Every structure is written in C-alpha cells, then in structure tokens.
Amino acid sequence: MKLGRWTIIVTCYNQRDFIREAVDSALLQGADELIVVDDASDDGSAEILETYRDEIRLCRMPSNAGVSRARNLGASVASGDYLVFVDGDDLLMPWALLVYKRIVEHRKPTLILGPALWFRGPVPATTLEEIRGVPLRFVEYSSPLAKDRQADLIASALVVDRAAFLDVGGWTSDIFHGDIKDLFLKMGCSGPLILILQPMVALYRVHQKNSIHQVSSFVKSAHRLIDKERAGQYPGGRAHVFERYAALGAYVAFWSAKGLAAGLWTEVLSLAVRGMPMVLAGVVQRCAGLLTGLIASIAIDGIS
Question: How many domains does the chain have?
C-alpha cells in the first residue's frame, strides 16, 4: 500500500541551545522532506542551521512573526501528504515516524495525536530497541470532536493530513496560546482522529521559556476561542454545538484551575462567567463517558 510522502516541519525562534537536538531527531526519522523554518532568530540559531546544508530545506522569516505563521510557511512549501510538526525546543522519539506510518497503513486518519515524555535538563537516552515488539495502542475517533479522553495537546506530537489542514486555513496566524485546541476545533469535522496511547512519540522539553508558564496568556486565549465559537467560526453547525462546547469546556476548566493557582482571580472569574455553558457541557460529556465507558482502544503489532 502506498503510504504517501511525509514532511517534517521544525520551527524555531531564538532556540540556539536546543535547535540542533531538534533537527537531529527529525533527521533520524528518514522522512521524505525536512523543512526548518527560522522565525528571524538573532541568537545564532541561523548559523547552526546553515551547517546542515542540503540535509534540510531552510526557510527564513523576514521578521519575527510567531510560531503559527512559521508553521504555515513550512506547510505552504511542503510536498508531503502528511505533515509532522516539531517545535525547536522539542524532539521526536527515534521511532516516531515508523509509528505514524504504521497507523496510516492501517487507518488513514486525518489527524494523529500522540503522547510525549516531559523532561528537564539533558535529553533522555532513547533507542529504537526499546519498543521493538511492543504493541502499538491507540483509539480511533470519527472526528476530533468525538475525542472522549484527555490528552496533552503538544504540537511536536501532532500529525495532520496536509490537504485537510490546508482546507481549514492551517494554523490561525494570530493565535499562539491555544493554537492546538483552535486547530482541533477548525478540523473538528475534517475526518478521523487517531489518539496514540503507546508508545510515546515525542520529547517535550520543560524550561523557563515554555509557553505553558504563561498562564495569563492561556486564560486570554480561552476568551478568544469562545469568541470564535460564538461567532460561528468553527465547523459543524448546530448539529455539533454540544461537542464543540464540551471541547472548549475542558480547555476553560483546565486553565481556570491553573489561573486560580497563579492568583489570577479577576481574570478567572471573567472566564468562568463566559465559559460556564462550555464547562457544563464538558461535565455532562465526562459523566456520560463514566456511565457508558470510553471508546475502546485498539492494539496492532508494533515495530519488529
């Protein structure tokens, strides 16, 4: 079976200390195409990327425009049928592309989301031998809106069908915090989603400049996503309003809790008032899942 071409897109901005490890992890995958987009770094990252010469396709943004625009630039010049995104401070597991190919061989999804290992400090040592013979477990959903399990939304563990991605306009250019939730809602009715349970497919580096530390920005992004939903900018119409509300409710509840822990009382109160219908939808969906059971996972042979 022809599996199609694969493009890995690495984006970076002032990540000189991490970018070589990110690119090297992508090169190990043996993808058909590796595109690296430098978002106008001024810390020496560009000089490091130049040393790869013909091993990568290097694109440079004329000025710093943000990760969403950088990813979209990479997607616009890509030739792959499937796009694998990697942030410049993260890495792919040595077996990531092999896992993705196995899933596409069996299921042909529109979106794939996998688990990531969070780490601090030196990159954990990983080899392909670690998962040889380990079954590949995943859950298949008819669409992203049907997802009934919690999962980390990490761009470096995300694969998209390029045609479907371009059909929805790619990443929303002016959304960074909340970007993956926004993309999932935009692609909510685009086709099947595979949620990988094992093995982990990416390494997520925790450091001082991670966006996850910017709680106030995520709270603000939740308002933006609510605005888009109320303006009818997400697909599915009235038939899927409950699923969209439930998806937003989980996001609102998570960042409201983080906001309270950070002492952002006023900001969280405003979000809670606006997002309460979404939170209630999320609670109803969760209770229904507890009563009826989650969608069963599927196991197929792992990498031999």
Answer: 2
Instruction: Answer whether the bond into residue 199 is a cis peptide, omega within 30°.
Output: yes
> Does some domain include residue 300?
no
Sequence-distant (≥ 6) Cβ neighbours of residue 211 within 8 angstroms: 176, 177, 217, 218
Separation in Å, CA 146 to CA 162, 189, 245, 249: 21, 9, 12, 14
CATH code where residue 27 lies: 3.90.550.10
Same domain, 71 and 199: yes
Q: 220 and 146 share a domain?
A: no
Residues 23 and 86 in one domain: yes
Range(s) of the domain holding residue 247? 213-292
Is the pLDDT at 289 greater than 90? The verdict is: no
Dist. CA 181–CA 221, nearest whole Å: 10
What would the pLDDT profile of 10-45 be if each residue is shown by its tens digit? 999 999 999 999 999 999 999 999 999 999 999 999
Full-model pTM: 0.95
In angstroms, the CA 302 to CA 296 distance is 18
pLDDT tens track for 53-89: 999 999 999 999 999 999 999 999 999 999 999 999 9
Is the pLDDT reported for residue 208 higher than 90?
Answer: no
Q: Is it the case that residue 1 has pLDDT exceeding 50?
A: no
Closest-CA residue to 92 (of 57, 72, 116, 58): 116
Provide the residue count of the chain: 304
Mapped onto helix, strand or coil, the DSSP state of residue 272 is helix
141 and 58 in a common domain? yes
Close Cβ partners of 173 (under 8 Å, ≥ 6 residues apart)? 65, 66, 68, 69, 72
Residue closest to 158 by CA, chosen among 56, 4, 295, 8 = 8
Return the H-helix or E-strand segment holding 221: helix 215-230
